[in-house]
Specification:
Elements (H helix, E strand, L loop, with lengths): L20 E5 L2 E5 L1 H4 L17 E4 L2 E4 L5 E3 L12 H20 L6
Length: 110
């Protein structure tokens, strides 16, 4: 998953924890690259209880990592700026299948 702001792809860290951070924006889990973390106007969702941006979204719920408050994620009313993961899944699945075919020496009939 690329950075939601600049589109940079995440790379494997040399050692230790990843410098990339998670956040929630418009009810969707996003990744934030180290460069974009320095930007103070990321427009991330905040916790209604404590105001923290340390949120995670999973299984239709948004949880605050600061205070532990949990709420249901609402479906966005407007179209997202970038396609969400389910909309990109078909293309990604095709890319992965093609890569596996190349690596494993399988060829599909023309």
């Amino acid at each position: 998953m690329p950075c939601f702001s600049c589109g940079a792809r995440q790379t494997d860290p040399v050692r230790g924890a990843s410098p990339w951070k998670r956040g929630v924006r418009r009810q969707t889990q996003v990744l934030i690259c180290p460069d974009c973390q320095r930007t103070h106007d990321l427009d991330l969702d905040t916790c209604a209880s404590c105001g923290s941006i340390a949120l995670i979204c999973r299984l239709g719920e948004v949880e605050c990592r600061s205070c532990g408050a949990v709420r249901l994620a609402e479906r966005p009313t407007a179209a997202p700026e970038r396609p969400c993961a389910p909309e990109r899944a078909d293309g990604l699945a095709d890319e992965v299948a093609a890569a596996l075919d190349r690596v494993l020496g399988r060829f599909s009939p023309a």
